[in-house]
Recover the amino acids of this structure.
């Protein structure tokens, strides 16, 4: 069996999976459930500073799944492209309660997993206060949230607005590092013009690792009432649709940084975990999969990861970390205008539904006698018809040329 153990910020994890800072890590009891399910560690639900204590209380209801159309009652057969829209923010605990709960979690988890704290401030005065709280815990490391997608609605100097400012984010990171006694891991926001610049500044400030990245701010509107759905404000927007976005940023950051990366946002299946590691991640965090599928998914992921690695002959995760980089080129290096690429129709599968004919902007497809036919001279080789075909009858090929 392959070795899934991972070294991260000086800590030995039994595997690279971390339960992200979210509802599943809201208290010691649920954190213990995460570890018992198989996670290598947990990131505690974020402690919010006293200036944003209002965000410790949660709206009810606070979760909405958009584009959610399960194929059956089995959630494992749910679509991969749905969105988790939510307005849950910080831990419900105050400073003392959070401190005690983190210590309780560490005590009951013991050496079965690592406990990484998480804090977020709404003002500069919050940071030193929370650092004092952190020093009174026995957590293994600390994530600092510079990226909550909807904190701007509560306080200006926090969340996305803070994380998008390289200089200010670095100042906060340095302040926290100087005032705690554990490794510090800033969590990035994807809502910035230059994520690489921000990450480099955080590394210079002394960050031990970097988490890439939080969700985005969003708004869903009910057009019948001209009102936001569920709650009358903005929310966080995440879920499986974010995975390709996360992979792109991981591959951008991996060659630019010396510190390890923790991937989060979009992980829905075990293949996503492998992909994130191939993109450069050392650890991989998950939230939505647990909220929607439950804890059983963790064992499924680990079993499949082990089987896949054994089948490929990999002995450790180090062998695949960053593996995609050697096959990734810039857009400027892409081959363009290749001759001979065209659509091919499998007549046995074609139902004559007309979908490909309706969308072909090159007038290269016609349906005759309930079967699609391709005019190779007109076909541009764009590939869209092969993607929309409901019966998978269209593929892309090349001419004999």
């Amino acid at each position: 069996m392959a070795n899934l153990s991972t070294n991260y910020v000086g800590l030995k994890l039994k595997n690279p999976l971390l339960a992200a800072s979210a509802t599943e890590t809201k208290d010691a009891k649920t954190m213990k459930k995460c570890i018992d399910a198989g996670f290598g560690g947990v990131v505690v639900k974020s402690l919010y500073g006293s200036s944003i204590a209002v965000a410790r209380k949660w709206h009810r209801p606070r979760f909405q799944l958009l584009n959610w159309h399960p194929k059956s009652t089995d959630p494992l057969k749910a679509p991969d492209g749905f969105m988790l829209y939510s307005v849950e923010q910080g831990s419900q605990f105050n400073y003392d309660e959070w401190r005690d709960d983190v210590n309780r979690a560490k005590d009951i988890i013991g050496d079965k997993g690592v406990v990484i704290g998480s804090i977020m401030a709404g003002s500069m005065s919050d940071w030193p206060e929370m650092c004092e709280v952190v020093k009174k815990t026995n957590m293994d490391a600390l994530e600092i949230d510079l990226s909550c997608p909807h904190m701007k609605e509560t306080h200006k100097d926090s969340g996305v607005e803070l994380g998008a400012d390289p200089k200010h984010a670095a100042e906060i990171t340095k302040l926290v590092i100087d005032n705690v006694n554990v490794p510090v891991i800033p969590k990035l926001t994807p809502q910035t013009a230059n994520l690489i610049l921000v990450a480099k500044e955080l590394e210079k400030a002394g960050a031990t690792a970097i988490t890439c990245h939080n969700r985005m701010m969003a708004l869903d509107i009910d057009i019948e009432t001209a009102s936001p759905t569920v709650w009358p404000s903005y929310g966080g927007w995440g879920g499986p649709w974010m995975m390709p976005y996360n992979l792109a940023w991981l591959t951008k950051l991996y060659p630019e940084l010396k510190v390890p990366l923790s991937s989060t946002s979009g992980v829905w299946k075990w293949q996503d975990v492998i992909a994130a590691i191939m993109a450069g991640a050392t650890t991989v965090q998950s939230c939505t999969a647990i909220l929607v599928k439950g804890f059983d998914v963790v064992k499924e992921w680990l079993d499949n990861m082990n089987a896949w690695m054994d089948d490929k002959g990999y002995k450790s995760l180090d062998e695949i970390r960053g593996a995609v980089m050697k096959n990734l080129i810039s857009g400027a290096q892409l081959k363009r205008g290749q001759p001979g690429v065209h659509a091919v129709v499998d007549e046995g599968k074609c139902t004559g539904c007309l979908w490909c004919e309706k969308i072909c902007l090159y007038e290269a497809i016609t349906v005759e006698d309930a079967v699609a036919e391709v005019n190779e001279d007109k076909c541009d080789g764009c590939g869209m018809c092969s993607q929309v075909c409901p019966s998978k009858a269209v593929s892309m090929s090349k001419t004999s040329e």
User: Anything to note?
Assistant: The CA atoms of residues 12 and 49 lie 30 Å apart. The chain has two domains: 6-327, 335-398.
